[in-house]
């Protein structure tokens, strides 16, 4: 039973981590792309 609860918490934690980090990843990619584009010009 504890294993099932631990698996559920791990799944929920992973989903929350993904949702929380996704905007930061998008911002990093956006600014990273912008900085690379700025260097090319």
TrEMBL record:
<dbReference type="InterPro" id="IPR049849">
    <property type="entry name" value="LPFR_strepto"/>
</dbReference>
<protein>
    <submittedName>
        <fullName>LPFR motif small protein</fullName>
    </submittedName>
</protein>
């Amino acid at each position: 039973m504890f294993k099932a609860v631990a698996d559920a918490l791990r799944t929920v934690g992973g989903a929350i981590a993904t949702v929380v980090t996704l905007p930061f990843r998008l911002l990093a990619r956006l600014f990273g792309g912008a900085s690379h584009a700025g260097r090319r010009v």
